[in-house]
Structure formats: structure tokens, C-alpha cells
Design brief:
With 280 residues, the protein is mostly beta strands. It has 1 helix and 18 strands. The protein has 2 domains: 14-169; 195-279, Immunoglobulin-like (Sandwich). The strands form 5 sheets. It has a 4-stranded antiparallel beta sheet with strand order 1-2-3-4, with no helix packed on it. Strands 5-6-7-8 form a 4-stranded antiparallel beta sheet, with no helix packed on it. Strands 15-14-17-18 form a 4-stranded antiparallel beta sheet, with no helix packed on it. The model is unreliable at 180-190 (pLDDT under 50).
Length: 280
């Protein structure tokens, strides 16, 4: 099955981006052509991937493409704002005659796929190909995924002795969806009255059992219920089906590495509540 095939001189690329919409399936982005703005696509994971929803990763205004997928390390992902959803960061080092630009797209239950944060090249790196490489991880150990973006070198005609920079952008809870201007009446109301308590917390990796309690009333009609555990990168590391979730119980994930994770309960395809846990 083929998603992108536009001729011999086009260079499609693809990157995994974790669970962007919180439905329990990992998602991916790909370029259907030459990485022009209209060619950069986000496709949701599903049991039938060829019939799943697909969206265009939109820019802010009329800026050039914020993602160039014709080379590696141009897209990274992680939970940059700690809300339990995977977020996307992309870069285009060729923009504005190799000055470079980067963009962030924040995940959510009903994301609009319009860029939420644009980062232009820092003043210390003019024409230095900002965004040539990217990396993501919790570099400072605060529970938020961070992003490192390089500006490695100049074009020879500009500054042959330039030594290069790597810029670190720290994840934090202030990152929010800045492009939503109207209420989405198709989106179910948030279930703020339902809370998940996981214990012990911190959780010790040598004991592969996470106990939980659900506070609040669950929906009266439940067609499907799924528990997921995501790491700080937004990847699903455990998925457990429950025919009818009880108000208390346990999850039995495989051995998890030390770090911060998000435990979520999905009912009828909608994530209704989440809880952070720390594994030592």
C-alpha cells in the first residue's frame, strides 16, 4: 500500500510522532511530495491505517514550510507541555535562503493541526541553517520533554569560520494551543469530575504492578474502555483493554525504564482522564 509516490524527483519522508490525539494508537507524519506546506501530512494510527484520518500540518500565516522532510532528523516529538498528548516539532533549515525556521504542533483530543508556535532562527545564527538537526528528550529532568535544534554551519560564502550552535528549548506547562478561536461543539465536554489516582507513586520498576482508583462517575454507556501508558516522548508503552472498567484495579505493564509516564483511561474512543507517575 502506497501513501506517497509523486515521481522520481520527489523525496517523500516519514516520521513517527507518538500518540498525537490520545486514542491509544501511535501516529506519523509524512511528505506527499517535496515538503511544500500543503504536502506535509499527519495520519492517525488505526487498525486499518489506509482508512484512518489524515490532515495537513498547517503553517502560521504565509510563512514557508516549517518542516523539510527530505532528510533525516527534521521532525521530533514528545510531550512538551505535560498534558499527556504527544506534540510535534519540525524544522526547515533551507527557509529564507538557509536561515532556517522551526515550528511546534501541540497534540490533544481534537487537535486542529495548525502550528501553535513558530521559532525563527536566533540572531546569533544568521544564515547558519537553523534546524539542520533536531533531538528531543527530558534534558533537565523536570518531567517535560525538551527540544534541541542545531545551527551547524554557514554556507561558505557567508562565514567559513562559524563554529555552530545548538539551541535548547525547554518544555513547560505554558505551551498551549494558540490557534483555537472558537468553541468546538462536536468535542465532548471535558470530564473534569473523573480523576485517576495511581499508586504507589513514585513507582519502583522492579514491581510490575500499578494500582489505580477512579474518582467520580463513569459514563453510563460504555462500548469500549482502554488503559494506556505513554512515556515522555508520547509513545504508547502499554495498552490494556477493559470490557467494563472497575473503580479500582491494577495495570500490569512490562518492565519500564525510570522516568515520567502518563496513565490514561479512554472510554468510547475519548480520553477521559490521566495521571502522571514517576518510575525510579
Amino acid at each position: 500500500r502506497t501513501l506517497a509516490d509523486n515521481g522520481a524527483w520527489n523525496f517523500p519522508g516519514a516520521y513517527k510522532v507518538g500518540d498525537f490525539n490520545g486514542d491509544g494508537f501511535d501516529d506519523f507524519v509524512y511528505c506527499n511530495g517535496d515538503s511544500w506546506p500543503e504536502d506535509n501530512k499527519l495520519r492517525y494510527g488505526a487498525e486499518d491505517i489506509m482508512s484512518s484520518d489524515e490532515f495537513t500540518l498547517l503553517n502560521i500565516g504565509t510563512s514557508p514550510s516549517l518542516i523539510n522532510m527530505d532528510w533525516h532528523d527534521r521532525v521530533v516529538y514528545g510531550d512538551f507541555n505535560g498534558d499527556g498528548y504527544s506534540d510535534i516539532a519540525g524544522a526547515n533549515f533551507k527557509a529564507y535562503i538557509y536561515q532556517g525556521v522551526a515550528g511546534f504542533w501541540l497534540g490533544g483530543a481534537n487537535p486542529n493541526t495548525t502550528c501553535d508556535l513558530r521559532i525563527d532562527r536566533p540572531s546569533t545564527s544568521p544564515y547558519q541553517q537553523f534546524g539542520y538537526y533536531m533531538a528531543a528528550g527530558d534534558f533537565n529532568g523536570d518531567g517535560y520533554c525538551d527540544v534541541a535544534i542545531s545551527a551547524p554551519h554557514a554556507l561558505p560564502a557567508y562565514d567559513p569560520v562559524y563554529k555552530g550552535y545548538v539551541y535548547i528549548f525547554a518544555g513547560n506547562s505554558d505551551l498551549t494551543d494558540t490557534t483555537v478561536s472558537t468553541d468546538d461543539y462536536l468535542q465532548p465536554p471535558p470530564t473534569e469530575n473523573i480523576k485517576i489516582k495511581c499508586y504507589p507513586n513514585p513507582f519502583h520498576a522492579e514491581f510490575p504492578k500499578i494500582s489505580y482508583e477512579i474518582e467520580g462517575e463513569l459514563p453510563s454507556h460504555i462500548d469500549s474502555a482502554i488503559w494506556t501508558i505513554h512515556n515522555i516522548r508520547g509513545q504508547v508503552v502499554h495498552r490494556q483493554t477493559a470490557d467494563q472498567p472497575s473503580k479500582s484495579g491494577s495495570l500490569l505493564p512490562k518492565k519500564l525504564s525510570p522516568g515520567v509516564y502518563v496513565v490514561s483511561l479512554h472510554i468510547n474512543g475519548q480520553r477521559i482522564s490521566s495521571s502522571k507517575i514517576t518510575i525510579k
